[in-house]
Structure formats: C-alpha cells, structure tokens
Design brief:
Strand order of the largest sheet: 1-4-5-8-9-10-11-12
Structural class: alpha/beta
CATH superfamily: Aldolase class I
Number of domains: 1
Catalytic activity: 2 5-aminolevulinate = porphobilinogen + 2 H2O + H(+)
GO molecular function: porphobilinogen synthase activity; zinc ion binding
Organism: Methanothermobacter marburgensis (strain ATCC BAA-927 / DSM 2133 / JCM 14651 / NBRC 100331 / OCM 82 / Marburg)
Pathway: Porphyrin-containing compound metabolism; protoporphyrin-IX biosynthesis; coproporphyrinogen-III from 5-aminolevulinate: step 1/4
Largest sheet: 8 strands, parallel, barrel
Subunit structure: Homooctamer.
Shape: globular
Number of strands: 12
Distance between the termini: 37 Å
Length: about 325
C-alpha cells in the first residue's frame, strides 16, 4: 500500500494538481503597496532610497503615475506616507489640506480605482521625530489625540477610503472615529496599527522618511517584542474603540502574533512586511545568496499565519507572480 502523503507528493509534480491542492493562496487584492510622497520633489525625479534598494520617494505626480501603473498590473490598494517640506514641534503640516498626502489622495481618487489608505502619525512632520506631541521632553498621550484626529479628518476630506493611525497613543482610534463621524465621514474605515512593536526592523523606513527620533526612543509607546498577551489586549481595545481593520507590525518576526490575533478576533487583519524585512531579503537576493522565489515564500508565510491583507514594499515583484 502506498501512503497517501507519498502519493500526494508525486501528484504535486503536476502544476495543475499542485494548484488545486494548495491550501493557502495569494491574490493581488491581498497586497497593499506603501508609497512615499515628498513635497520636496515637486517637479523632480523620483529619489532612490539608499537603505531600501528599489524603493523611491516620489513627487505627487510621480506617485500617482506609479500607482496607476501598478493598478494596471493588478494592484488594488496603496498606503501613502507623506514627507513635508517644513516641520515644526506640532506636526501642523500633517493636516495641511494642500499637503503631499492630501493632494495625492485627491488625484488617486480622480484618476484610479485604487483603494487609498493613508498613514496617520506625527513622526515625519515633527522636528523631534516622535509620534506624539512632546512637552518637557516627554511624549504626552492625550494632547496628541486631537492632532491625530485632525490629520485623519484632513485625509478623509481629501477622499481617503481608509485612515491608518500608526502612533500607538492610547485612545486614538476612538478620537479619530468620533472626529470622522461628527464630520459626516462614518464610511471612512480605520485600519489601526493595533500591535506595533518597538522593532529594529524599522530602521530603513526611518531613513526613508527622515523620522528618526531626535532624542530617546519609542519604547514608551510601542510594544515590547517579548509580549503576546499585550498584543491581544491592544487589539481588543482598538476594536472596542471602532477599528475596522487590525494590523500587526512587523510581520515576518511576529508570525506567531499574527496567528494569535487572528485566532482571537475574527476581523480583517493586516500585517506590515516592514522596511527592514524588505531590505534584508533584497540584499540577500541582490548578493546572489537567495533567488527571487524567496519573496513569494516569505509573503505566503504571512498569509498562512492569518493575515488577510499584507502591506509590502515587494508589491511590484509580487504582482508578476500571483
């Protein structure tokens, strides 16, 4: 008698059989592409990011062109990050209706069918680089909430389908939901960075958007990488406050957390395949240590762990194989 597993392995040599037996599948609608939009590049060429080979900072025009090109290849959604021309202590440029993110949102909604998501945070827009308002050298939670709500509202007014607070301040989902509802944007979704760890894997991103803290670190408001129960608590609190989509960030180093959150809460779950995860794999491929197939395998592992949506800088490569 032949064991079923041995027979299955033999049958999977056929691409058709392998396809119908596949348990986990990636689809282009699972993938969200992060795009960096800089006010400093108006009229200029895209600017390569040294710590993220293959990734660029774009002007508004070029961001729209790139997003439109990827839409033709099957992309369904983008997540926008803004880079202002001026910064201050209060991130006032983050809610400027003529800011880079707001203008890009309006153009994308006019010219594409993409789902447009926007990152809501202060770090790129403040002189100190922290995700909240700073008073006497400390990041103050409650004073930050009004600013976050104002940023989210400016994105919704521009036409964003989804706002994504990444700051990790307590109560920010409730503050944003209240501001959106009061202004008549009850259909604007909130994708909460509910489980965001204080991770070393963010370093290339901070270089890309010039958001490294000028002092201290973010461990007082981002999560300890050792904690899983805390992740479940944070996710539950954000759901109660009105989050429509939860997110775990980073992804590859936290597959167990993705699985735990999905098992506990049967709601849409995103995972961010962050800059450091991108850069280390990109470097291994460019050095010849790995092949491009490692990209698909890595992203598949995130989907298999339980993520419904995957934010990844590898989106252009993935669209060609899924």
């Amino acid at each position: 008698m032949e064991f079923p597993t041995k027979r299955m392995r033999r049958l999977r040599k056929s691409p058709q059989i392998r396809d119908i037996l596949r348990e986990t599948r990636l689809h282009s609608s699972d993938i969200i592409y992060p795009i960096f939009v800089s006010e400093k590049l108006e009229g200029g060429e895209p600017e390569s990011i040294d710590t993220m080979p293959g990734q660029y900072r774009y002007s508004v025009d070029d961001a729209v062109s790139e997003a439109s090109r990827l839409e033709d290849e099957g992309l369904s959604a983008v997540l926008l990050f803004g880079m202002p021309s001026t910064k201050d202590e209060f991130a006032s440029s983050a809610y400027d209706p003529d800011g880079a993110v707001q203008r890009t949102v309006r153009r994308l909604k006019e010219e594409t069918e993409l789902v447009v998501m926007t990152d809501v945070c202060l770090c790129q827009y403040t002189t100190h680089g922290h995700c909240g308002i700073v008073v006497d050298g400390e990041v103050v939670n409650d004073e930050t909430l009004d600013v976050l709500a104002r940023i989210a509202l400016s994105h919704a007014e521009a036409g964003a389908d989804v706002v994504a607070p990444s700051d990790m301040m307590d109560g920010r989902v409730a503050a944003i939901r209240r501001a959106l509802d009061d202004a008549g944007f009850s259909d604007t979704l909130i994708m909460s960075y509910a489980v965001k760890y204080a991770s070393a894997f963010y370093a290339p991103f901070r270089d890309a958007v010039s958001s490294a803290p000028a002092f201290g670190d973010r461990r007082s408001y981002q999560m300890d990488p050792a904690n899983v129960s805390e992740a479940l608590m944070e996710a539950e609190l954000d759901l109660k406050e009105g989050a429509d989509i939860l997110m775990v960030k980073p992804a590859l180093a936290y597959l167990d957390v993705i699985e735990a959150v999905k098992d506990r809460f049967r709601v849409p779950l995103a995972a961010y395949n962050v800059s450091g995860e991108y850069s280390m794999l990109r470097a291994a491929i460019d050095s010849g240590y790995l092949t491009e197939e490692a990209i698909y395998e890595s992203i598949l592992s995130i989907k298999r762990a339980g993520a419904d949506l995957i934010i990844s800088h590898f989106a252009p490569e993935l669209l060609g194989v899924i």
